[in-house]
Every structure is written in C-alpha cells, then in structure tokens.
Specification:
Length: 378
C-alpha cells in the first residue's frame, strides 16, 4: 500500500488543473510579450488568471504579480520591501521558513538591517507583547511572520499583527504559502503589505507562485531583464504554470469549507488513533482546530532508540511523510522549528500532512505500521 502524507511539502495536482494546463499548452504557445495575435491571446490568458486570483483574494489585479514560487515571492517582499522603503530594522520569529529567515539574516550580515527575533512558546506561538514593544521602540520596522508554520501547523493571528503594524507605521509581510487555498484571505480587509503563495501547496503545479503587493506599498523589481509583470519582474512568464495556479486556487475556494471539514476530520482521527494506540505519544505545536493548520500534524514518538530510522521505516512501508520542512530534507542539521520550541531532541518527530485525496484507510494503515515500529521499543 502506498500512502502519501507529505502534502505540506507538495500536493498532487488536481486533474482539472492538469486539463486546463494541457489545453493551454496545446493551443496557446505565443510569447505574451509579442504584439501579434498569438502573443496577445496568451497575454489575455495571463491577465484572466491574474483577475481570478485577485478576485478570490478581494484585491485589485494590479496588486498580483506572478513569480517562480514562494521563495522568490518571499525574497522579493523582504529585499525590496526593506530597501525601497528605507527600513533599517526588521522583526521576525525563529520559526519562519528559511526563505524568510535566511534572507533577513543575509540583510543583517551585510549591515542593511538590525534583526530582532521574537520569543516563542512550546506550542509555537510568537510573543505578540514583545512584538508591540519592539514596534513601539522601533517604529517603521519591517515585520515578517508566517500565517501558519509549515512544520508544526501553529497559526498566527495575522489580522492582529496587521493592525499592530499599521498602528506603528511598520511594513508587514506574511508568508501564507501553507494557508493559501486552505483559508479564505480577504486581503483588502486585512490591509497587509505583502502576501506570498505557491501553487504546488494547493494542488497546482510546481515552479509558479505569486506575491500580493498592496497598492500603497511601493517597491522596485527584484528580478531585472524585461518589462514583464507590468515592469515588476523580468523574464518570460510561466504561462502554463500561471493557468494552473489560477485554476487550482479557484477549485480550492469553490470547495474550501467541505475540504476543511473533511481534512480536519482526518487529522482529528489520526490524533485519536495515535493517542489510543501509542503510549506517551506527544504532538508538537498547537493541535486545537481553531489554532492550528488543519493539514499538518507534527508527532513526537516515544521510541527514542529508533529515532534515526523512523522515516526510513515508514518509507519502506510505503508511507511518505517528513521529519520537518521538506526544503531541509537530507540535511544533518535538525529542524530549527523544533529546536526553537524546545522539542525533545531524543524523540523522533514526524510531520504528517493531509489533503482531500487522503482517506481514513490511509490513517489506519499508517497507525498500524507505527504500532509495529514503536510498541516493542517503548
């Protein structure tokens, strides 16, 4: 049996998305920068996709820019948001994706900014009182806090953070890669400066994403070389990827509540089954539905003597899961997120992440294999 529970790393592409992309591949090959009929038709396709994304997020199409993915979008928001707005102090948390942390740390290394990192508790909540204190002491800072953590699933109240940033004249960027397509985002109401997304996290293709830039926040291009994306991103557009991204996001929004209830049911079922069958099982991060990303469950196992073999054993059983962020797989360095929240380094931790394509039978199979792996080791 093959069970895929690594949807936080990437999701299977929805068949409707594949069909939309193939139709464009077969019929519309023009360069969107060309002024002839073939080019104009493809340009229209891109703008239709932009309008779809903007409509779902309640913003203007002029505020949506397509990128190669979430990492480029995060880098664009951080580098250009800081430099072009004359900002010298940034605030983040030690739990952010490396696309955010490494970018901010590089700006600190080169002397562009001073960087402050917020404290976090054992469940992965950032210290919002400390955030307000830092903003009071350093108005006009750059704040980057993700909506939901990709490894432990803990949610941050970005509506509260956005209001706080406006109060102190700060620029606010949120990496929403894990929640885009899974939560409804009214960016007009939120009044946030930058939001980022990646299609492959919500059943779209890899290699394409977007950045939302509030029309009141002015930045210059991060990638130069052409007038594409209204002079904001050089390079011929990934037309088929953009079509897939828009279609995937459209499907997600059309079925969001149904999928949320279904996937939350799978997560809750797995929590119950693990708790009932594995003594001393623990969970990293917040797990209450109102405080946690419903697609992610980070599990801490008691079988410490097989910590190095846990993922390998699951893989041999046909189960795909992750020991942390997929972007760090193969690294000898432990998860920076689990270290920051003080997780026991001697206990093996596995991130299981779910999608609409998983079933209870998948969960039952995984729990059975975990029992085989762990019970005689406790």
């Amino acid at each position: 049996m093959q069970v895929y529970l690594d949807n936080a790393a990437t999701t299977p592409i929805d068949p409707e998305v594949i069909n939309a992309m193939v139709e464009t591949m077969e019929n519309d090959f023009g360069n969107p920068s060309s002024i002839h009929a073939h080019g104009r038709k493809v340009k229209t396709i891109i703008e239709k996709a932009r309008k779809t994304v903007a409509g779902l997020l309640h913003v203007s199409p002029a505020e949506i820019f397509f990128t190669s993915g979430g990492t480029e979008a995060d880098n664009t928001a951080i580098v250009r948001g800081i430099i072009d707005n004359g900002i010298s102090h940034a605030i983040t948390s030690p739990l952010e994706h490396h696309a955010v942390l490494h970018t901010l740390e590089e700006l600190e290394r080169t002397g562009t900014i001073r960087l402050s990192k917020l404290g976090v508790n054992a469940q992965g909540y950032v210290d919002l009182q400390q955030l307000e204190q830092l903003l009071r002491e350093n108005p006009h800072s750059f704040v980057s806090l993700m909506h939901a953590n990709n490894e432990i699933g803990t949610l941050t109240d970005i509506e509260y953070v956005s209001a706080l940033c406006k109060q102190y004249g700060a620029v606010f960027h949120s990496d929403t890669v894990q929640t885009m397509g899974h939560f409804a985002h009214d960016l007009h109401k939120l009044q946030i400066d930058f939001v980022t997304g990646a299609a492959h996290k919500f059943h779209g293709p890899k290699g394409v994403g977007f950045i939302y830039v509030n029309h009141n926040t002015k930045i210059k291009p991060f990638i130069h070389g052409g007038a594409q994306e209204r002079n904001m991103r050089g390079g011929t557009e990934n037309v088929y990827g953009i079509v897939g991204l828009a279609k995937a996001l459209e499907i997600c929004h059309a079925n969001m509540e149904e999928h949320r209830q279904y996937i939350q049911g799978l997560k809750s079922y797995m929590i119950d089954q693990l708790t009932a069958n594995i003594p001393d099982i623990r969970f990293n991060g917040a797990i209450a539905p109102e405080n946690s990303l419903y697609t992610v469950l980070n599990v801490s196992f008691p079988c410490t003597d097989i910590a190095d073999m846990m993922l390998f054993t699951l893989d041999i059983a046909g189960i795909s899961a992750s020991g942390g962020s997929a972007c760090s797989s193969g690294s000898d360095i432990g998860s920076h997120v689990l270290q920051a929240i003080g997780a026991d380094p001697q206990r093996p931790c596995v991130r299981f992440s779910f999608s609409k394509y998983n079933t209870r039978a998948d969960i039952d199979y995984v729990v059975d294999k975990i029992k085989e792996c762990c019970l005689d080791k406790v």
